[in-house]
């Protein structure tokens, strides 16, 4: 095979050649095609302001709901303790009046510890003559 040398072979032209004036007038033509007035720039924050306010409001509501539930649960327990302490130390109510306000469910939940022996109860019932009248009335 023969050696091929680029320097000795004739050059092939591409057939495309720019006009001589093209590059001198190029920048002027591009500048003419650009818009004369600058476009109005709208920032991201002003365009989406209502969406951002809405998302902030939703976030506040979403975070406050668990806090409200937490506070409501604690206040019920605190109220029950406060009422019990008030009735214990500051109330002029008798035991009978307190029993009137209790429900059947409350009475079932009260633990009853009897330290009185059955013999003692029998003696008290035997000695009390009016116990039958009190029970019947």
Can you walk me through this structure?
With 137 residues, this protein is mainly alpha-helical. The chain has helices spanning 22-33, 44-47, 49-89, 95-101, 104-109, 118-127, 131-136. 0% of the residues are buried.
**What structural class results from the helix and strand content?**
mainly alpha
The global form is rod-shaped
| Number of helical stretches of at least 4 residues | 7
Low-confidence stretches: none
Strand-and-helix sequence, N→C?
HHHHHHH
Count every beta strand, where a strand is a DSSP E run of 2 or more residues.
Answer: 0
Average pLDDT number: 78
State the separation between the terminal residues, measured CA to CA. Answer: 138 Å
Radius of gyration (CA) equals 50 Å
Summary of the model, kept short:
With 137 residues, the chain is mainly α. It is 63% helix and 0% strand.
Topology of helices and strands:
Blueprint: H1 22-33, H2 44-47, H3 49-89, H4 95-101, H5 104-109, H6 118-127, H7 131-136
List keywords for this structure.
137 residues; rod-shaped; mainly alpha; 7 helices
């Amino acid at each position: 095979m023969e050696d091929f040398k680029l320097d000795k072979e004739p050059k092939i032209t591409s057939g495309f050649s720019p006009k001589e004036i093209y590059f001198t007038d190029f920048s002027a033509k591009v500048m003419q095609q650009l818009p004369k007035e600058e476009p109005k720039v709208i920032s991201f924050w002003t365009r989406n302001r209502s969406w951002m306010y809405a998302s902030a409001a939703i976030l506040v509501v979403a975070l406050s709901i668990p806090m409200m539930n937490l506070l409501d649960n604690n206040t019920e327990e605190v109220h029950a303790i406060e009422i019990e302490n008030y009735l214990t130390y500051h109330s002029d109510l008798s035991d009978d009046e307190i029993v009137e306000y209790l429900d059947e469910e409350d009475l079932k939940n009260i633990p009853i510890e009897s330290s009185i022996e059955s013999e003692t109860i029998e003696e008290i019932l035997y000695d009390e003559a009016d116990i039958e009248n009190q029970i019947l009335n």
